[in-house]
Amino acid sequence: MTTLAQLRKAALSYPETAEEVIDSGTVAFTVRGKRFASMGKDAVVELRLPAVDVDEVLAAHPAARPLPRGAVTVGVRVPIGDINGQQLNHWMRRAWLSQAPKRLAARVAAGDAATPGEVGDLPKAIGGPATRALTGAGITTLAQVAALTDAELLAMHGVGPKAVRILREALA
């Protein structure tokens, strides 16, 4: 079963994401002030998504409902128990990309094509997921890595303890 902790980890893995708790107890995630995901005490996740993604979520999850804003559907509401972690990660990414400023979204999308060993001076040994995560966050050099803590690196989806160890060894 997917949890708020997993939702939080997925949301905060994207650059410039902020978390806030609204007075009603709703936990909301924003990118540059634009909400892309939230979850209230009712354990229902709200994701701001483009129409094509809304249709896909509604078709895949019978308990999902459209998220209206006036007469316009701006996303979906789906009980967190009805979505697995892999699906949550996918839809969280789609929601973040739909709300992020174009330049920031393009930078993250460019990270998808990053190849280990071909990005700045990042070591090939950190692997594809870590290379894509770092590139998506705009980090392409060891000098930029040096400015980050291990906790900041580990918070990036795709960067694990092995990648952090390899990066620290390369910096030494």
Task: Please describe what this structure looks like.
With 172 residues, this protein is of the alpha+beta class. It folds into two domains: 97 residues, Aspartate Aminotransferase, domain 1; 59 residues. 43% of the residues lie in helices and 20% in strands. The protein contains eight helices and six strands; from the N terminus they run H-E-E-E-E-H-E-E-H-H-H-H-H-H. Strands 1-2-3-4-6-5 form a six-stranded antiparallel β-sheet. Strand 5 and strand 6 form a beta hairpin. Helix 3 crosses helix 4. The radius of gyration is 17 Å and the shape is elongated. 34% of the residues are buried. The mean pLDDT is 91. It comes from Actinomadura soli. This is Helix-hairpin-helix protein.
Condensed summary:
By secondary structure, this protein is an alpha+beta fold.
Task: Summarize the SSE layout with pairings.
Layout: H1 4-12, E1 17-21, E2 27-31, E3 34-39, E4 44-48, H2 51-60, E5 65-69, E6 72-79, H3 85-99, H4 102-111, H5 128-136, H6 142-146, H7 150-154, H8 161-171
Antiparallel strand pairs: 1-2, 2-3, 3-4, 4-6, 5-6
Helix pairs in contact: 1-3, 3-4, 4-5
Protein name: Helix-hairpin-helix protein
